Each structure stands twice: as C-alpha cells, then as structure tokens.
Amino acid sequence: MDHSAFRSVQDIFGYKSSRCRSVLFVIGSVLTCGFLLLLFYWKPEWDVWAKCIQCTLQEADIILLRTTDEFKIWTKKKVMWIHLSLLRNPARADQQHSLLSDETSLLHRIIMKPDLKVRYIEIQKIRYIWDLQEKQFVRAERLIFGPNTIEIQIVPIWKLLCKEVLNPFYTFQIFSVCLWLSEDYIEYSVVLIIMSLISIAFSVYDVRQQSMKLYRLVESHNNMMVTVCRKDGGEPFSVIKGILF
Fold first, then answer.
1. Using CA atoms, how far apart are residues 105 and 107, in angstroms rounded to an integer?
2. Buried b (16+ CB within 10 A) or exposed e, 181-201
3. Of 51, 163, 165, 190, which is most buried with the most CB atoms under 10 A?
4. Which keywords belong to this entry (predicted)?
C-alpha cells in the first residue's frame, strides 16, 4: 500500500514469526486448557506480540494494522506469496523479457528473481504487493492478480456458528451456566441455554442471509455486459464488465 496515503488511516507494523515463542505459546495453551488460545483469538495484537518479533516490513511474514482513530482497532494479516508460473510460458518469452527488463515497469519492481514470485497482503478484498525498490506495499494491478471483479465467498454455516460461539458474550454465558449448574440452579441454567441457542441461531441465519444477498448482487454486477467503442472508429463490441482492464 502506498504508505503516505495508507498511514493517514492505519498504522502498519512488521513482525517475524519466532519458533521458540510459538512453542512457548503452545505449552501455555495446554497448561491453561485452551484459555490462552481463546484470549489471543479475541486480541490478535496480543497473539502477534507473544509469538513474533518486530522487524522491518521487508522481513516481515506477519503484518499488524492499527486504525488511527480513537478506537485503535488492531488487525492481523499474513504476508503471502504468488508464484508467477505464467511468466515461464515460452510462447510469450519476448514479451515477458521486455516487461521484466523495463526498470520503469511495475513487474520489474515487484517480482523477486529468479524465483519469479510476488509478495503481498490482502486487506478488505484488496491486494497490496511489495515494491522492491520503494520498500513499501502498493496496490495491485490486474496484470498480476487477474480480472477486475469482486469475489465474494459464502462462509459455511459451521464457521459462522463457531465464530458466533467464540464471541466473548457467549463465552461468559457458558461460564455462567457451568457455575449455576454447579450450584444446582438447573431451571435457570436451562432457560439461559435455550435463550442463548435461539440468539445464536438467529444471528447465524441473519449473517448467512446477508452474505447470500451480497453474493447475488456481486455476481450480477460481475456478469454485466457493456459495449466498448473504439477511438479509431472500429466496430463496437460487447464484453463482460469484469474482464475490462
């Protein structure tokens, strides 16, 4: 991402995974019966601080983002790689060599040679690639990451259910039910369990319905047909909107 524009919205920090710290984290999770794992699920910045070592963005395999508003919300992102196997196509060797040798081209600045791979992170469905010369993340182009379309994945119900149950509110409810059951408050505990199950079911259903509506809306937008008119007076032709460059 262009740091000059991006840092007006979020601060960005680089971290490198530490094997020793990760082992200690696993031991701590076992000793606390999974509570440490649950705590770090709620607080992603604690998870990174406990298992990683701060480093430069160039060396990082984990990125922490922090909003600059009064809420200071943290987000954890993993640095990923794309191997550009298409650049090994012999039929396009001349074109590929020209792009890679042009020092002003984006490809020349982002592709790590000789492995032909690109380093990137994804934030809110937008991919940002690492510029080797500028030492910063910049917004990706279609040349590397495919057609100009929005891809919406429908999250499975079991994942929505797990995410809802791991909410701190329901975790507290589970603890409360266990406490009341130990004190023989059976009726109250059963009522609370039923109410919690109904609340979880309605929440998962609502999120699922919203995801389906968004998916249908994006699909109809991606498949929209448009007419392209040429400046040279050539015959207009129709294409799917998502494949426009």
1. 5
2. eeeeeeeebeebeeebeeebe
3. 51
4. ATP-binding, Magnesium, Membrane, Metal-binding, Nucleotide-binding, Translocase, Transmembrane, Transmembrane helix
Asked if residue 221 and residue 165 are part of one domain, the reply reads: yes
47, two tokens? 């998870």
Residues 18 and 50 in one domain: yes
pLDDT score, position 94: 53
pLDDT single digits (tens) 138-183: 876 554 555 555 666 788 888 888 888 888 888 888 888 888 888 8
Judge if 223 and 164 occupy the same domain.
Answer: yes
Beta-carbon contacts of 191 under 8 Å, excluding residues fewer than 6 positions away, are none
Range of the domain at 118: 81-145
pLDDT score recorded for residue 44? 93
Cα-trace Rg, the chain: 24
- Note whether 28 and 104 are same-domain residues: no
Same domain, 156 and 244: yes
- For residue 14, how many other CB atoms are within 10 A of its CB? 18
Same domain? 153 vs 186: yes
8 Å CB contact between 131 and 138:
yes
| pLDDT of res. 149 | 58
User: Is residue 87 predicted with pLDDT exceeding 70?
Assistant: no
Task: DSSP letter for 112, please.
Answer: B
Q: At 127, which helix (H) or strand (E)? A: strand 126-131
Domains of the chain: total: 3
Q: What is the pTM of this model?
A: 0.66
Phi, psi of 80 (to 5 degrees): -120, 170
Q: Which of 31, 56, 78 is the last residue of a domain?
A: 78
> In the 8-state DSSP scheme, what is residue 59?
T
Query: What tokens were used for 11?
Result: 């601060």
